Amino acid sequence: MSQFFQIHAENPQPRLVRQAVDIIRSGGVIAYPTDSAYALGCSIGKKKSVDRLRQIRRLSDQHNFTLVCRDLSELAVYAQVNNSHYRLLKAHTPGAYTFILKGTREVPRRLMHPKRKTIGIRVPDCIITQALLCELNAPLISTTLALPDDETPLLDPYEIRQMLEHQLDLVIDGGYCGMEATTVVSLLEEIPKVLRQGKGAFLRC
């Protein structure tokens, strides 16, 4: 049965943040709020945890997860970023955007697109998420918390707990955070390309 933490959206309680990160480090899978919707997350180094994410959402082996990073410096460890990328990323992070970039050797191969070696990266504008990332000192592997037969993400942390309490290790109640997906932008070509228009209003720089 999952634990349930009520973490303040503007002033996260350090004790609860530390406990949540301990769960992540031990291989736990959590539901947590972001700046766009609730998401599922786990440690980048835990293959069994990633497999559990796939099982919960019934995702194929080809599904591309997102690495949620705390800032641009951490993002650049896991993605190949040139000068034009950096200017654009700086202008749009933190925010409700997922950027598709070439991954570096720091990204486990199982998390990248098998042929293009790409990875989705994002820096969310959410105080709770940022508190988790700072305490973890590493990115989270993440995917939107939408169940297999649903078109929209789950909104209510109590409902999340009720539906997934035997599949998750922790549900973080951070209040309402929306239900709109991130804007997905590919930076694989010279000109950025919006692959999915979501919450983030994309402005080229």
Structure characteristics:
205 residues, alpha/beta, DHBP synthase, globular
CATH class, named Alpha Beta
From the 3D structure, determine the CATH topology.
Answer: DHBP synthase
Q: How many E-type strands?
A: 10
- Radius of gyration based on Cα positions: 16 Å
Number of domains: 1
Biggest sheet statistics: 10 strands, mixed
One letter per element, helices H and strands E, the order comes to EHEEHEHHEEHEHEEE
* Outline type: globular
Question: Roughly what percent helix?
Answer: 25-40%
The averaged pLDDT comes out at 91
Strand share of the residues?
15-25%
How far the N terminus sits from the C terminus, by CA atoms, comes to: 47 Å
Enumerate the strands of the largest sheet in spatial order, edge to edge or round the barrel. 1-8-2-3-7-4-6-5-9-10
Structural class: alpha/beta
Helix run count: 6
- The CATH superfamily is DHBP synthase
Looking at the overall shape, the CATH architecture is: Alpha-Beta Complex
Low-confidence stretches: none
Structure notes:
The protein contains 6 helices and 10 strands, in the order E-H-E-E-H-E-H-H-E-E-H-E-H-E-E-E. It has a single domain (3-196), classed as DHBP synthase (Alpha-Beta Complex). The protein is 28% helix and 21% strand. The chain is an alpha/beta fold and 205 residues long. Helix 1 (14-25) crosses helix 5 (127-136). A hairpin with a 6-residue loop joins strand 2 (30-32) and strand 3 (39-43). The longest helix is centred in the first third of the chain and has 12 residues, at 14-25. The model has no long low-confidence stretch (mean pLDDT 91).
